[in-house]
Amino acid sequence: MTRDTRVDRRQFLRVTAIAGGGLLLGSVLDSVSADSAFAAPLDPGAAAEFSPNAFIRITPDGVVTIIAKNPEVGQGIKTMLPMLIAEELDVDWKNVRIEQAGLDTVKFTGQVAGGSSATPNHWLPLRRVGAAARSMLVAAAAKTWNVPAAECETASGVVTHRASGRSLAYGQLLDVAATIPAPKLEDVALKDPKSFKIVGTRVRGVDNHAIVTGKPLFGIDMSMPGMLHAVYEKCPVFGGKVKSANLDEIKRLPGVRHAFVVEGVGTSLDGLLGGVAIVADSWWLARSARQRLKVEWDEGTTGSLSSREIATTAAVLAKHAPQRSLRKDGDVDAALASAAKVVRAEYFYPFLAHAPLEPQNCTAHFTSDGKLELWAPTQNPAAARGLVTKALGMQDADVTIHLTRGGGGFGRRLMNDYVVEAARIAKEIRVPVKLLWTREDDMRHDFYRAAGFHNFTGAVDASGKLVAWRNHFVSFGDPEKMAASATGQAPFGPGAGIGAGEFPARFVPNFALDASVMPQAVPTGYLRAPGSNGIAFATQSFIDELAAAAGKDPLQFRLDLLAAEQPSTGAQGGGFDGSRMRGVLELVREKSGWGTRTLPKGTGMGVAFHFSHRGYFAEVVQATVNRGGELKVDKVWVAGDIGSQIINPSNAENQSQGSVLDGISEALAQEITIDKGRAVQGNFTDFPLIRLRQSPPVEVHFHVTTFPPTGLGEPALPPVVPALCSAIFAATGKRIRSLPLSTHDLKWG
Amino acid sequence: MKVSLKVNGAPTTVDAPSDMPLLWVLRDVLDLKGAKYGCGVGQCGACTVHLKGAPVRSCQIPVAALQGAEVTTIEGLSTDGTHPVQRAWEEVDVPQCGYCQAGQIMSAAALLARNPSPSDAQIAAAMNGNLCRCATYLRIQEAVRKAAASAPAASAPSAARPRQAGAPRSLRTAP
User: Fold this and answer.
1) Where are the beta strands (DSSP E) in A288-383?
2) Which of A168, A588, B21, B33 lies at a C-alpha separation of 20 to 30 Å from A572?
């Protein structure tokens, strides 16, 4: 039965007869042709890896099983990637079954939910997987009938030879298909998008039925025979260590099986941090025991840190010469000296928690033969395995990671602290165990969206044209390294940086981007549209101030600014195409009726745009503030350009609306403050999420262009925050230079 | 302590700590994982179930209050996912991550059981206690409207009378 399936690096597809009958169409992606295609931006180490992949399984009954390889955290990838394969395989979506893969770095690369990267990275490669399989099935039919393959066509999983009126279903062709040589990746013909039957249609989430019937899908739903339940207490001051704990008392409490101190590994805040593990018969008993836990902590050196101190330090840094210049075009000082109007403003945005609704959890089983099996809702399973093997001194081959559906990710689950904690506990107790954090654990031990401070100076000339721009950005990272060198990668903390090409670089003749950083005492990471979610607020809000100084309509001012594009020089500032942004800005102007309506006092419209994750988004917000200062967001219009094809319009609309409401949620009242070295907020009582009653209608329009399709998990979020703040300015005359909005008094009149 | 209650129509006896919330009884004693833990303080609604037809936050109801309780969870809302609210949720393609949706659906089903044709304001009021971190609120609203339209008042399934599949299932009881 089993054929020789020697891996040939030049060969794209291999065929395996599988147990029980059927055909496994696996693909081997050439590392050269895959190139950047499977390179996950957040895991560059995996990019060069050569990987044999297995995506399609067809059984004689005609059922097509497609493997979904990437982690699903609500972005819709478990539906979307298989759509690409099914389209080119030319089968009916209703006959497709989807299977979630676990971590498999031999078969797959880029098993990451991050960077809105899955669409651009898989658009062609996974279509080719489907098309290559189809071409083999066509060849099998042609061979069976002894006719030229070119005379055969496919539809709905059936090959037809029209001239002789014969047809065979894919399920009938498996044995012959297994003898057909696999085509090369670059030789496979793809469909004309005009003939797509699945791509471009509204396909519902493949897990919808399981979700609406309450089936166990998520990491937290894991259970297995003999499984115990764990909680893990860490020092509330980031990176603190256990000095002592009342373990003897805890061990005597009802249901408690184990209580022990875990020593941290290394000093990194994203490694295994020290703490106290309590393992009990049920999670409730573990949690109850934890309430009696008394730990004496070594809080380290940051036990007095506060948000106030951070703001003070940032203000001092802003007054001094920057630690480093990231970009300099023209002569800003000369331009400021001769400009008609100069505007200065300081912008601030706070730390934010990710707060995915499913608290962090991982189920782990360390078996007697020294192997470790993990079930985790992680966005980055390869990194999880790396963290675990490093912390526990294990080999990759001894660690198996199953991917569960994640109850939200938003970038939080790119970090795998909860995975390594579960693994460490499992290794200690040698029985299956589920670690589950409380909501408070999640909120107080996050890798926060970095707070940021932007110190702007800008100027317009007599005609209202933007002639000078300076931003001294103050963030977190390694101050010594920042000051030590003028070149090379700027040593910002995770998610705390800014790109040298960030808009409006290349659009203003005299431009300076400078940076200074404070030491990294608060763990930061990647929150949906990292960097962009704060930078867009500051940058677009300041552009609004400059438009006002110029006496120009804020939308027209932006169109004029985008028209002033200078070509990209070298690596800096590439990737952003001003004409594509003008396209969405013009579309949102039309759809929102910008400037065509007379609004009552207290109601205003604001506009903003932002380019991130290869997506172009312009958004208009209409908001009303009553005299008492109560804010209501009336409506949001979204125009996006993510290329030539909206792969799944239903999910595209859902993602865009969700991103916009998520942005409004962040702006309204979210803030993590630091006091005594720890995060103050702990639950949705003091870190509120937007609710249904606060959610305005969000009208989404896509500007279809000729560019390759790009991702949608993130880029619709950033513009809504500054658009909302500018709408508030239009409504009240109050300029919002810091977030969240709940810290402002919006009363007027 | 030992309490006797009905879960999805099936009588069961649970022996659990008196302060253990219903949520953990359902999830870890009875192995019904549909109700979700999100906040533990009654703020997010992911744990919503019906108690005699009324939507409640199961993370806030201790075992001590469960004697004689009649509990319906998402698993018991219909036998096969055909409750009008479940159907509407699938048709409108509401979920993103899906974690909150069982709680959303239980809140919506309870609303429609007592008010088969709610206004938008009534929908918003009934659903405002359920957080969706993915912010699928616009589709939640649409799905509730659709479920209301698809289930004429006379035949709207009452949350107080969940459909049963023949004889009550025997549920595992805690040791």
Assistant:
1) 295-298, 324-329, 341-349, 361-366, 372-376
2) A588
